[in-house]
Amino acid sequence: MARITVEDCIDKFPSRFELVLVASNRARKLHSGEEPTVDKDNDKNTVIALREIAQETITQDKLKNDLIEEYQSTNFIEDEEIAELEENTAEESTSSEHENDNISDTNEDPDLAKADGNTENNDNQADKDQDNNDQIISDEENLNPNEELSNEDQDNEDESSNNLE
Fold this sequence. Notes:
By secondary structure, this protein is mainly α.
């Protein structure tokens, strides 16, 4: 048969997209070892799949069902892995709930928090930060932009302006 194209097969399926899905699935099946229903003629699997569709050697229903089965099938190993993952996730969530309970117990008991010392350290650091911010603000408020520069500062300013010229 001469060169096969999608145009030769489009009348077999109502949608060009459906045709592509079915043909690609059939090509994968040919690649995995299924026997073609037409002569190979040294063609690639995609061309063989399109030739099978054009010559209608495989029914549309079989092609559609193969495609559906391909996407629906799972094997026993995958089912076991999924079950194992679900069990591990359930165990992790249970253990994290117990950890959260322990953390909340520590936050509720002030004696435990003091023994830990972290709460006091955080409070002290916050107080120090606030004091530093207050000092910076008061220093800025005390600056007077109209205040005269001292003689030394005036000399330094004159030298820097001379260097720029």
